[in-house]
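Quick question: what would this complex look like in 3D?
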Amino acid sequence: MIALLARDLRLAIRAGGGFGLGLAFFLIVSVLVPFAVGPEAEVLARIAPGILWVGALLACLLSLDRIFQLDFEDGSLDLLATAPIPMEGTVAVKALAHWITTGLPLVLAAPVFGALMSLDERGYWWIFVTLLIGTPALSMIGAFGAALTVGLKRGGLLLSLLVLPLYIPTLIFGAEAATRGIGGFDNTTPLLMLAGITAAAVALLPFAASAAIRINLR
Amino acid sequence: MSAMELTVTDLTVARGGVPVLEGLGFRLSAGQVLVLRGPNGSGKTTLLRTLAGLQPPMAGAISLPPEAIAYGAHADGLKATLTVAENLAFWARIHGTHEIEPALDDFNLQALRNRAAQSLSAGQKRRLGLARLLVTGRSLWLLDEPTVSLDVASVALFADAVRAHVAGGGAALIATHIDLGLAADIFDVGPYKADPRAPSRTPSAFDEAFA
Protein backbone atom coordinates (compact mmCIF):
# COMPACT_ATOMS: atom_id res chain seq x y z
CA MET A 1 0.00 0.00 0.00
CA ILE A 2 2.93 2.28 0.68
CA ALA A 3 4.07 1.48 -2.86
CA LEU A 4 0.73 2.66 -4.21
CA LEU A 5 0.86 5.86 -2.12
CA ALA A 6 4.42 6.54 -3.25
CA ARG A 7 3.47 5.98 -6.88
CA ASP A 8 0.44 8.28 -6.71
CA LEU A 9 2.44 11.04 -5.04
CA ARG A 10 5.23 10.67 -7.59
CA LEU A 11 2.75 10.78 -10.47
CA ALA A 12 1.16 13.90 -9.01
CA ILE A 13 4.40 15.86 -8.91
CA ARG A 14 5.65 14.71 -12.33
CA ALA A 15 4.74 16.83 -15.34
CA GLY A 16 1.00 16.92 -15.98
CA GLY A 17 0.26 15.29 -12.65
CA GLY A 18 -2.13 17.99 -11.51
CA PHE A 19 -0.29 18.91 -8.32
CA GLY A 20 -0.86 22.58 -7.61
CA LEU A 21 -4.03 22.79 -9.69
CA GLY A 22 -6.23 23.07 -6.62
CA LEU A 23 -3.80 25.41 -4.93
CA ALA A 24 -3.71 27.74 -7.94
CA PHE A 25 -7.51 27.76 -8.06
CA PHE A 26 -7.65 28.54 -4.34
CA LEU A 27 -5.20 31.42 -4.81
CA ILE A 28 -7.28 32.82 -7.67
CA VAL A 29 -10.45 32.78 -5.54
CA SER A 30 -8.71 34.45 -2.60
CA VAL A 31 -7.23 37.14 -4.82
CA LEU A 32 -10.39 37.88 -6.79
CA VAL A 33 -12.84 38.13 -3.89
CA PRO A 34 -11.34 41.32 -2.38
CA PHE A 35 -11.52 42.94 -5.84
CA ALA A 36 -15.14 41.92 -6.19
CA VAL A 37 -16.48 42.91 -2.77
CA GLY A 38 -14.29 45.95 -2.18
CA PRO A 39 -11.42 46.67 0.19
CA GLU A 40 -13.32 47.27 3.50
CA ALA A 41 -11.44 45.18 6.04
CA GLU A 42 -14.47 44.54 8.30
CA VAL A 43 -16.59 43.19 5.44
CA LEU A 44 -13.75 40.98 4.15
CA ALA A 45 -12.90 39.61 7.56
CA ARG A 46 -16.56 38.79 8.15
CA ILE A 47 -17.01 36.79 4.90
CA ALA A 48 -13.46 35.36 4.83
CA PRO A 49 -14.16 32.01 6.58
CA GLY A 50 -17.04 31.25 4.24
CA ILE A 51 -15.13 32.29 1.11
CA LEU A 52 -12.03 30.32 2.09
CA TRP A 53 -14.13 27.25 2.83
CA VAL A 54 -16.02 27.48 -0.47
CA GLY A 55 -12.73 28.06 -2.30
CA ALA A 56 -11.11 25.03 -0.67
CA LEU A 57 -14.13 22.87 -1.44
CA LEU A 58 -14.23 23.84 -5.12
CA ALA A 59 -10.44 23.46 -5.44
CA CYS A 60 -10.80 19.95 -4.04
CA LEU A 61 -13.61 19.16 -6.48
CA LEU A 62 -11.46 20.22 -9.43
CA SER A 63 -9.08 17.28 -9.22
CA LEU A 64 -11.47 14.53 -8.10
CA ASP A 65 -11.99 12.86 -11.46
CA ARG A 66 -8.26 12.11 -11.64
CA ILE A 67 -8.40 9.80 -8.61
CA PHE A 68 -9.53 6.70 -10.53
CA GLN A 69 -10.11 7.78 -14.14
CA LEU A 70 -6.47 7.68 -15.27
CA ASP A 71 -5.91 4.27 -13.67
CA PHE A 72 -9.11 3.04 -15.30
CA GLU A 73 -8.09 4.24 -18.75
CA ASP A 74 -4.60 2.71 -18.77
CA GLY A 75 -5.76 -0.60 -17.30
CA SER A 76 -4.02 -0.19 -13.92
CA LEU A 77 -7.33 -0.44 -12.07
CA ASP A 78 -8.01 -3.92 -13.53
CA LEU A 79 -4.55 -5.00 -12.47
CA LEU A 80 -4.92 -3.48 -9.00
CA ALA A 81 -8.22 -5.35 -8.65
CA THR A 82 -6.36 -8.63 -9.17
CA ALA A 83 -3.44 -7.59 -6.92
CA PRO A 84 -3.01 -8.77 -3.32
CA ILE A 85 -4.15 -5.44 -1.83
CA PRO A 86 -7.88 -5.35 -1.05
CA MET A 87 -9.80 -2.84 -3.16
CA GLU A 88 -10.88 -1.03 0.03
CA GLY A 89 -7.20 -0.42 0.78
CA THR A 90 -6.59 0.83 -2.76
CA VAL A 91 -9.47 3.30 -2.43
CA ALA A 92 -8.33 4.53 0.98
CA VAL A 93 -4.75 4.98 -0.20
CA LYS A 94 -5.80 6.85 -3.33
CA ALA A 95 -8.05 9.14 -1.26
CA LEU A 96 -5.10 9.74 1.08
CA ALA A 97 -2.85 10.56 -1.89
CA HIS A 98 -5.50 12.99 -3.14
CA TRP A 99 -5.63 14.65 0.29
CA ILE A 100 -1.83 14.95 0.50
CA THR A 101 -1.57 16.49 -2.96
CA THR A 102 -4.70 18.68 -2.80
CA GLY A 103 -6.14 19.01 0.71
CA LEU A 104 -2.92 19.41 2.69
CA PRO A 105 -1.49 22.22 0.49
CA LEU A 106 -4.83 24.04 0.86
CA VAL A 107 -4.72 23.67 4.65
CA LEU A 108 -1.18 25.03 4.78
CA ALA A 109 -1.85 27.86 2.34
CA ALA A 110 -5.20 28.97 3.78
CA PRO A 111 -3.75 31.15 6.58
CA VAL A 112 -1.52 32.90 4.04
CA PHE A 113 -4.42 33.54 1.69
CA GLY A 114 -6.44 34.60 4.74
CA ALA A 115 -4.13 37.60 4.93
CA LEU A 116 -5.53 38.72 1.57
CA MET A 117 -8.97 38.70 3.22
CA SER A 118 -7.92 40.78 6.25
CA LEU A 119 -8.15 37.88 8.71
CA ASP A 120 -6.44 38.36 12.08
CA GLU A 121 -4.18 35.85 13.86
CA ARG A 122 -7.08 34.08 15.49
CA GLY A 123 -8.59 33.76 12.01
CA TYR A 124 -5.44 32.11 10.62
CA TRP A 125 -5.56 29.55 13.42
CA TRP A 126 -9.23 28.61 13.07
CA ILE A 127 -9.15 28.44 9.26
CA PHE A 128 -6.13 26.16 9.56
CA VAL A 129 -7.75 23.91 12.19
CA THR A 130 -11.17 23.59 10.53
CA LEU A 131 -9.68 22.86 7.10
CA LEU A 132 -7.28 20.35 8.63
CA ILE A 133 -10.19 18.48 10.21
CA GLY A 134 -12.59 18.87 7.29
CA THR A 135 -10.57 18.36 4.10
CA PRO A 136 -9.94 14.60 4.63
CA ALA A 137 -13.73 14.18 4.43
CA LEU A 138 -13.74 16.14 1.16
CA SER A 139 -11.12 13.78 -0.35
CA MET A 140 -12.83 10.62 0.88
CA ILE A 141 -16.34 11.65 -0.22
CA GLY A 142 -14.84 12.75 -3.52
CA ALA A 143 -13.12 9.37 -3.97
CA PHE A 144 -16.51 7.73 -3.45
CA GLY A 145 -18.04 9.96 -6.15
CA ALA A 146 -15.10 9.26 -8.46
CA ALA A 147 -15.58 5.52 -7.90
CA LEU A 148 -19.24 5.79 -8.87
CA THR A 149 -18.45 7.58 -12.14
CA VAL A 150 -15.19 5.83 -13.03
CA GLY A 151 -16.40 4.08 -16.16
CA LEU A 152 -18.06 7.12 -17.69
CA LYS A 153 -16.53 9.21 -20.43
CA ARG A 154 -16.67 12.88 -19.44
CA GLY A 155 -18.04 11.90 -16.06
CA GLY A 156 -16.81 15.15 -14.50
CA LEU A 157 -20.16 16.94 -14.57
CA LEU A 158 -22.04 13.99 -13.08
CA LEU A 159 -19.29 13.63 -10.48
CA SER A 160 -19.67 17.28 -9.41
CA LEU A 161 -23.46 16.98 -9.20
CA LEU A 162 -23.17 13.79 -7.13
CA VAL A 163 -20.52 15.04 -4.78
CA LEU A 164 -21.57 18.63 -4.09
CA PRO A 165 -24.67 17.73 -2.01
CA LEU A 166 -22.53 15.33 0.02
CA TYR A 167 -20.05 18.14 0.67
CA ILE A 168 -22.68 20.47 2.15
CA PRO A 169 -22.60 19.16 5.77
CA THR A 170 -18.82 19.48 5.82
CA LEU A 171 -19.07 23.02 4.45
CA ILE A 172 -21.75 24.07 6.94
CA PHE A 173 -19.98 22.78 10.03
CA GLY A 174 -16.51 23.77 8.82
CA ALA A 175 -17.43 27.36 8.02
CA GLU A 176 -19.56 27.62 11.16
CA ALA A 177 -16.73 26.40 13.38
CA ALA A 178 -14.31 28.85 11.76
CA THR A 179 -16.73 31.80 12.01
CA ARG A 180 -17.52 31.14 15.66
CA GLY A 181 -13.87 30.62 16.53
CA ILE A 182 -12.88 33.89 14.86
CA GLY A 183 -15.71 35.71 16.63
CA GLY A 184 -14.42 34.44 19.96
CA PHE A 185 -17.42 32.20 20.64
CA ASP A 186 -17.51 28.57 21.72
CA ASN A 187 -17.26 26.38 18.62
CA THR A 188 -16.95 22.94 20.20
CA THR A 189 -20.22 21.63 18.72
CA PRO A 190 -19.54 22.41 15.04
CA LEU A 191 -15.93 21.22 15.43
CA LEU A 192 -17.10 17.89 16.84
CA MET A 193 -19.70 17.55 14.09
CA LEU A 194 -17.01 18.27 11.48
CA ALA A 195 -14.67 15.70 13.04
CA GLY A 196 -17.54 13.23 13.19
CA ILE A 197 -18.29 13.63 9.47
CA THR A 198 -14.63 13.10 8.64
CA ALA A 199 -14.36 10.04 10.87
CA ALA A 200 -17.52 8.50 9.43
CA ALA A 201 -16.45 9.19 5.83
CA VAL A 202 -12.99 7.69 6.35
CA ALA A 203 -14.42 4.66 8.15
CA LEU A 204 -17.32 3.79 5.85
CA LEU A 205 -16.78 5.17 2.36
CA PRO A 206 -13.80 2.98 1.35
CA PHE A 207 -16.18 0.01 1.45
CA ALA A 208 -18.88 1.76 -0.57
CA ALA A 209 -16.35 3.10 -3.07
CA SER A 210 -14.67 -0.27 -3.61
CA ALA A 211 -18.08 -1.90 -4.20
CA ALA A 212 -18.81 0.81 -6.79
CA ILE A 213 -15.48 0.21 -8.53
CA ARG A 214 -16.02 -3.54 -8.68
CA ILE A 215 -19.36 -2.98 -10.38
CA ASN A 216 -17.85 -0.46 -12.79
CA LEU A 217 -15.05 -2.87 -13.78
CA ARG A 218 -17.47 -5.57 -14.97
CA MET B 1 5.21 -21.35 -6.46
CA SER B 2 2.74 -23.86 -5.09
CA ALA B 3 1.11 -26.49 -7.27
CA MET B 4 -1.95 -25.03 -8.82
CA GLU B 5 -4.88 -26.24 -10.79
CA LEU B 6 -7.67 -24.31 -12.48
CA THR B 7 -10.93 -26.18 -12.96
CA VAL B 8 -13.86 -24.67 -14.81
CA THR B 9 -17.21 -26.47 -14.65
CA ASP B 10 -20.30 -25.66 -16.75
CA LEU B 11 -19.38 -21.98 -16.78
CA THR B 12 -21.54 -19.31 -18.41
CA VAL B 13 -19.97 -15.90 -18.88
CA ALA B 14 -21.83 -12.74 -19.82
CA ARG B 15 -20.95 -9.36 -21.21
CA GLY B 16 -23.33 -6.55 -20.28
CA GLY B 17 -25.86 -9.07 -18.95
CA VAL B 18 -25.95 -11.01 -22.25
CA PRO B 19 -24.48 -14.53 -22.11
CA VAL B 20 -21.68 -14.97 -24.65
CA LEU B 21 -20.29 -18.41 -23.79
CA GLU B 22 -22.06 -21.20 -21.93
CA GLY B 23 -21.36 -24.71 -20.74
CA LEU B 24 -17.60 -24.16 -20.65
CA GLY B 25 -15.57 -26.81 -18.95
CA PHE B 26 -11.82 -27.36 -18.90
CA ARG B 27 -8.96 -28.03 -16.58
CA LEU B 28 -5.52 -26.45 -16.47
CA SER B 29 -2.78 -27.92 -14.30
CA ALA B 30 0.71 -26.82 -13.37
CA GLY B 31 3.13 -27.06 -16.26
CA GLN B 32 0.43 -26.69 -18.88
CA VAL B 33 -0.26 -24.02 -21.50
CA LEU B 34 -3.78 -23.72 -22.85
CA VAL B 35 -4.41 -21.54 -25.90
CA LEU B 36 -7.89 -20.08 -26.34
CA ARG B 37 -9.04 -19.82 -29.92
CA GLY B 38 -12.07 -18.14 -31.36
CA PRO B 39 -12.97 -15.32 -33.74
CA ASN B 40 -13.13 -11.68 -32.63
CA GLY B 41 -16.07 -11.04 -30.32
CA SER B 42 -16.43 -14.69 -29.38
CA GLY B 43 -16.01 -13.98 -25.68
CA LYS B 44 -12.36 -14.80 -25.03
CA THR B 45 -11.75 -11.54 -23.16
CA THR B 46 -14.98 -11.94 -21.19
CA LEU B 47 -13.92 -15.43 -20.17
CA LEU B 48 -10.48 -14.24 -19.08
CA ARG B 49 -11.94 -11.32 -17.09
CA THR B 50 -14.35 -13.70 -15.37
CA LEU B 51 -11.54 -16.10 -14.48
CA ALA B 52 -9.51 -13.16 -13.17
CA GLY B 53 -12.36 -12.31 -10.80
CA LEU B 54 -13.11 -8.94 -12.41
CA GLN B 55 -16.69 -9.96 -13.12
CA PRO B 56 -18.89 -12.66 -11.64
CA PRO B 57 -19.80 -15.75 -13.69
CA MET B 58 -23.42 -15.99 -14.73
CA ALA B 59 -23.53 -19.70 -13.91
CA GLY B 60 -21.15 -22.51 -13.19
CA ALA B 61 -18.09 -22.77 -11.01
CA ILE B 62 -14.45 -21.73 -11.16
CA SER B 63 -12.05 -23.43 -8.81
CA LEU B 64 -8.55 -22.09 -8.40
CA PRO B 65 -6.15 -21.41 -5.53
CA PRO B 66 -6.36 -17.94 -3.99
CA GLU B 67 -4.01 -15.21 -5.25
CA ALA B 68 -2.81 -17.32 -8.15
CA ILE B 69 -3.81 -15.08 -11.02
CA ALA B 70 -1.69 -12.66 -13.01
CA TYR B 71 -3.91 -11.00 -15.58
CA GLY B 72 -2.44 -9.47 -18.73
CA ALA B 73 -5.02 -7.37 -20.52
CA HIS B 74 -5.07 -5.33 -23.73
CA ALA B 75 -3.99 -2.31 -21.67
CA ASP B 76 -0.65 -2.69 -19.94
CA GLY B 77 -1.35 -0.49 -16.91
CA LEU B 78 1.74 1.65 -17.51
CA LYS B 79 2.17 5.17 -16.20
CA ALA B 80 3.47 7.43 -18.97
CA THR B 81 5.56 9.69 -16.73
CA LEU B 82 7.26 6.88 -14.81
CA THR B 83 10.34 5.16 -16.20
CA VAL B 84 10.44 1.52 -17.27
CA ALA B 85 12.17 0.47 -14.04
CA GLU B 86 9.79 2.54 -11.88
CA ASN B 87 6.73 1.04 -13.53
CA LEU B 88 8.04 -2.47 -12.99
CA ALA B 89 9.24 -1.81 -9.45
CA PHE B 90 5.78 -0.51 -8.53
CA TRP B 91 4.07 -3.73 -9.60
CA ALA B 92 6.79 -5.78 -7.90
CA ARG B 93 6.20 -3.96 -4.59
CA ILE B 94 2.42 -4.29 -4.91
CA HIS B 95 2.85 -8.04 -5.23
CA GLY B 96 5.41 -8.20 -2.46
CA THR B 97 8.36 -9.14 -4.67
CA HIS B 98 11.38 -6.93 -5.13
CA GLU B 99 13.46 -8.38 -7.91
CA ILE B 100 12.90 -6.65 -11.25
CA GLU B 101 16.27 -7.35 -12.89
CA PRO B 102 15.42 -10.85 -14.23
CA ALA B 103 12.21 -9.48 -15.76
CA LEU B 104 14.13 -6.62 -17.42
CA ASP B 105 16.66 -9.13 -18.75
CA ASP B 106 14.10 -11.61 -20.03
CA PHE B 107 12.26 -9.00 -22.07
CA ASN B 108 15.37 -7.19 -23.25
CA LEU B 109 14.47 -3.95 -21.44
CA GLN B 110 17.77 -3.20 -19.69
CA ALA B 111 18.76 -0.58 -22.27
CA LEU B 112 15.42 1.19 -21.79
CA ARG B 113 15.22 1.04 -18.02
CA ASN B 114 15.52 4.80 -17.43
CA ARG B 115 13.30 5.86 -20.31
CA ALA B 116 9.85 7.25 -19.48
CA ALA B 117 7.11 4.87 -20.55
CA GLN B 118 5.55 7.57 -22.73
CA SER B 119 8.59 7.55 -25.03
CA LEU B 120 8.43 3.80 -25.68
CA SER B 121 7.13 2.31 -28.92
CA ALA B 122 3.97 0.19 -28.85
CA GLY B 123 6.00 -3.02 -28.95
CA GLN B 124 8.34 -1.85 -26.18
CA LYS B 125 5.34 -0.94 -24.01
CA ARG B 126 3.90 -4.39 -24.60
CA ARG B 127 7.20 -5.98 -23.58
CA LEU B 128 7.15 -3.96 -20.37
CA GLY B 129 3.52 -5.02 -19.79
CA LEU B 130 4.55 -8.67 -20.19
CA ALA B 131 7.62 -8.23 -17.96
CA ARG B 132 5.11 -7.24 -15.24
CA LEU B 133 3.86 -10.86 -15.23
CA LEU B 134 7.28 -12.06 -14.09
CA VAL B 135 7.40 -9.69 -11.09
CA THR B 136 3.95 -10.68 -9.81
CA GLY B 137 5.21 -14.08 -8.69
CA ARG B 138 1.76 -15.49 -9.50
CA SER B 139 1.48 -19.02 -10.87
CA LEU B 140 -1.42 -18.75 -13.35
CA TRP B 141 -1.04 -16.27 -16.21
CA LEU B 142 -4.24 -15.21 -17.95
CA LEU B 143 -3.15 -13.43 -21.10
CA ASP B 144 -5.33 -11.58 -23.56
CA GLU B 145 -3.69 -11.22 -26.98
CA PRO B 146 -0.20 -10.89 -25.46
CA THR B 147 1.62 -10.66 -28.77
CA VAL B 148 -0.18 -7.62 -30.21
CA SER B 149 2.39 -5.19 -31.70
CA LEU B 150 5.34 -7.48 -30.89
CA ASP B 151 7.92 -8.27 -33.60
CA VAL B 152 9.14 -11.81 -34.32
CA ALA B 153 12.11 -11.56 -31.96
CA SER B 154 9.93 -10.27 -29.10
CA VAL B 155 7.35 -13.01 -29.67
CA ALA B 156 10.22 -15.48 -29.26
CA LEU B 157 11.26 -13.75 -26.00
CA PHE B 158 7.69 -14.01 -24.79
CA ALA B 159 7.45 -17.69 -25.77
CA ASP B 160 10.69 -18.34 -23.86
CA ALA B 161 9.27 -16.60 -20.78
CA VAL B 162 6.10 -18.72 -20.94
CA ARG B 163 8.19 -21.88 -21.36
CA ALA B 164 10.32 -21.00 -18.34
CA HIS B 165 7.20 -20.15 -16.34
CA VAL B 166 5.45 -23.48 -16.97
CA ALA B 167 8.71 -25.38 -16.48
CA GLY B 168 8.84 -23.80 -12.99
CA GLY B 169 5.39 -25.16 -12.09
CA GLY B 170 3.27 -22.33 -13.44
CA ALA B 171 0.50 -22.45 -15.99
CA ALA B 172 -0.78 -20.11 -18.67
CA LEU B 173 -4.10 -19.54 -20.39
CA ILE B 174 -3.48 -17.48 -23.52
CA ALA B 175 -6.00 -16.01 -25.94
CA THR B 176 -4.16 -15.51 -29.20
CA HIS B 177 -4.56 -15.77 -32.96
CA ILE B 178 -0.97 -16.63 -33.81
CA ASP B 179 1.12 -19.74 -33.32
CA LEU B 180 3.56 -19.11 -30.47
CA GLY B 181 5.60 -22.26 -31.11
CA LEU B 182 4.72 -23.56 -27.65
CA ALA B 183 3.77 -27.09 -26.70
CA ALA B 184 0.22 -26.04 -25.94
CA ASP B 185 -3.25 -27.54 -25.86
CA ILE B 186 -5.87 -25.72 -27.91
CA PHE B 187 -9.27 -24.83 -26.51
CA ASP B 188 -11.68 -23.53 -29.15
CA VAL B 189 -14.51 -21.47 -27.63
CA GLY B 190 -16.58 -21.65 -30.83
CA PRO B 191 -18.81 -24.62 -29.85
CA TYR B 192 -19.74 -22.94 -26.54
CA LYS B 193 -21.26 -19.83 -28.10
CA ALA B 194 -24.38 -18.85 -26.15
CA ASP B 195 -27.67 -17.91 -27.74
CA PRO B 196 -27.86 -14.21 -26.90
CA ARG B 197 -31.65 -14.15 -27.16
CA ALA B 198 -32.14 -16.84 -24.56
CA PRO B 199 -33.17 -15.27 -21.26
CA SER B 200 -30.54 -15.75 -18.62
CA ARG B 201 -31.62 -18.54 -16.32
CA THR B 202 -30.04 -17.15 -13.21
CA PRO B 203 -30.15 -13.37 -13.02
CA SER B 204 -27.36 -12.07 -10.85
CA ALA B 205 -28.11 -10.79 -7.39
CA PHE B 206 -27.09 -7.32 -8.49
CA ASP B 207 -29.71 -7.18 -11.21
CA GLU B 208 -32.33 -8.53 -8.86
CA ALA B 209 -31.56 -5.88 -6.30
CA PHE B 210 -32.22 -3.16 -8.86
CA ALA B 211 -35.12 -4.80 -10.70
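Answer marked as accepted. Helices of chain B lie at 44-51, 84-94, 101-106, 122-136, 152-167, 205-209.
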